[in-house]
Amino acid sequence: xxxxxxxxxxxxxxxxxxxxxxxxxxxxxxxxxxxxxxxxxxxxxxxxxxxxxxxxxxxxxxxxxxxxxxxxxxxxxxxxxxxxxxxxxxxxxxxxxxxxxxxxxxxxxxxxxxxxxxxxxxxxxxxxxxxxxxxxxxxxxxxxxxxxxxxxxxxxxxxxxxxxxxxxxxxxxxxxxxxxxxxxxxxxxxxxxxxxxxxxxxxxxxxxxxxxxxxxxxxxxxxxxxxxxxxxxxxxxxxxxxxxxxxxxxxxxxxxxxxxxxxxxxxxxxxxxxxxxxxxxxxxxxxxxxxxxxxxxxxxxxxxxxxxxxxxxxxxxxxxxxxxxxxxxxxxxxxxxxxxxxxxxxxxxxxxxxxxxxxxxxxxxxxxxxxxxxxxxxxxxxxxxxxxxxxxxxxxxxxxxxxxxxxxxxxxxxxxxxxxxxxxxxxxxxxxxxxxxxxxxxxxxxxxxxxxxxxxxxxxxxxxxxxxxxxxxxxxxxxxxxxxxxxxxxxxxxxxxxxxxx
Length: 502
Prior knowledge:
Layout: H1 2-17, E1 18-22, E2 34-35, E3 38-43, E4 47-51, E5 54-55, E6 63-67, H2 69-89, H3 98-121, H4 127-143, H5 159-162, E7 171-187, E8 193-208, E9 211-226, H6 234-237, E10 272-284, H7 308-318, H8 324-348, H9 361-377, E11 380-398, E12 402-418, E13 424-427, E14 433-444, E15 490-496
Antiparallel strand pairs: 1-6, 2-5, 3-4, 7-8, 8-9, 9-10, 11-12, 12-13, 12-14, 14-15
């Protein structure tokens, strides 16, 4: 009713304001519309972005318009009334943000229900391992793109995607960094297939015609597999390999393994990528590396999983502990706080190798690129006087192979970047920067609670100094691979609070 009233008031004002009369023949004019393209980016076969605004100046078709001054005053009065009504109607209400939280809760609940259904039919399924699998496929999808090795991925790509780069120009992609992978949906309702949709935030360097450009990209990847399959064990999920023999992926275009000769059809033994959609692409300049935008999301309420209290209870029962505090306090102090200070301390010193044993392979590789880039420019990103004000549990995930705990960490520090001469080129030495982040820690299922503080400077398997960890996180003394969570907690993922969705 209110909308109809506004329309009638506006029409009344218009009729009062203007007198419409016929113009002389041929007295009208017209201007044809046109289109333009600006700020467009199109990388070969990656999906394109174009901004094509169309401008169309209307024409009066031989009609002239004369203004009635009295009507114009009346029209302005009505317009003011309409603006007041609309302003009151659209004034912020205290419950405006509620639908967002409700929708997020519904999405979490839907994902949890579908994940439970998936695990009922596939008790081997692990979200941690699936993310590792996706990470491997994403990296190889781009790094192999215009090279013969792209055929090695044939069992893991739809026929359409398998032919994706056949007509591509000569270019290469490297320095691929995945910043985050978010669960979007899981579907187990099909009679023959199951599907998982993910949103991936990443960046890479595109080399084309002697020019290198770095891009950030957001994509949606949709995976399928046949219903009723059991997921492979960790060593076959954490690397892209033949689902039959476990050898590194080396397939022909028809999906025949170069090692065991088995033909792996899409979705029969492992997930395959059915569709990918590029949602957003942005070119990065060198100056973007030292730009300091205002923190977003720090003041938001912590996003906690539905049923977190029940998950806490299940976890302490699994660990044979009397209550949650008996686990949480040592974990918050010895793992979360200790890892946080150590990891960011080594980051400030550009000594990423010094915390290799505390990081998952994916997190180590992603941030190694950025540190190498800073070293190339001889920049130092300093995080001085770090203070942790609060650590809040946000999520607990348990499966056959892994247990994962996500926490939100509130902290502040003096965050700045300086060049080789000590000149500040970003951030500030005088103003503390407050922020919060979601950190996910993982370890293999079945590990018992520790009774003594973790040593961040020794191998958790043999106790030798952690000064001889290779790039693959293998202890130089006992040969154990530490970054899998087999022996202790490792940091699996860091997400900023403005993008974390639970």
